[in-house]
Please model this.
Amino acid sequence: MTSNGPGVALPPDILESLEQLIFGAIGLTSFALADNDAADLTLAQWRAMVVIGRTDGLRVGEIGARVGMSLPSTSRLISRLERHGYVSTARDERDRRATIVRMTDEGRRVRSAVIERRRQLMNSSLAAYGSQLPTDLADGLTTLARAFSPYE
Model:
């Protein structure tokens, strides 16, 4: 058994299933990106768009911390997103040394299109398993989502 915290251990088969689920989710996202105007986005850029899109604006350093990148790498990533027209940047009025990043209308459109395409892929992938899905799947997935929320 593998421990994931004090007094909690998950059996290896559950960890393996979670790994497979995560690999599948990454694959779904890659396909959804390729099927949209966002085909030129890397997964790291997509991750930043997900983080930025959940706020009204974040500092570059906050984005880096949430996506697990250094400040220089995050700055370069944001510059690429800005060149694509997906985000805009402005100096923070409270701290002129900091830059605030916001999603543009085009960024929101692309983000929504990718999320919608990924949902379509999930639905079509799960359609054949409808009768095999547990009735408490929503509760279980909600619990997993809460457990993984620090990494959103």
Strands lie at 2-5, 8-10, 58-59, 87-91, 99-103.
